[in-house]
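Quarterly update from the structural biology core.
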Amino acid sequence: MSNPNLKRKNKNYLPRIKELLNYVRPKMNVLDVGSSWFSLKDVLPEGCSYTCIDIEDKPNTIKVDLNKDKLPFKDNEFDVVIMGEVLEHLVNFDNALKELSRVGNKLVGSTPNAHSIRGILNHIIGRDTSIIGEHLVIWTKYELRNLLSNYFQCVQIYGHTIAIKNKLLYKNQTRFGDTLIFICDN
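Predicted structure, tokenized:
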């Protein structure tokens, strides 16, 4: 992917975006969930239709609180729902995941990995790894699979990328990656 819009973004987030976009094909109807700092619109394959929802009120975005709102879309309206680094900020997973499974045929996303090298080191030194920064929850691969399987058929969940102090050390599949990538079907 050689899109210049991607190259300007956070180096650690870039591999995650690219990984999630692997599941988007030309002419798909895409729902982008929570893109408060970066819109996927300009990096989607040709012919995709694009809708963005976010908790913040901003241009070209439908304001939705996934913790409580019903999504203003028809059942199965979207071919793919992309949810990058959002799930860990939610309080009401039940409402959010029920609604996303209702409107999307596939869910692809990313969330921090509790079993990342960073998470393991935090646990060893006694730091609370369940709440880091604005993250309300951080899951292991197995906890995430249990959660998502209540709403979707989880096709795959794997660790991805290892970075320390904004230096990307590894960007392929790894159990101890900073991020969990999840791919789920309805």
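Residues 4-185 form a domain with the Rossmann fold fold (CATH 3.40.50.150).
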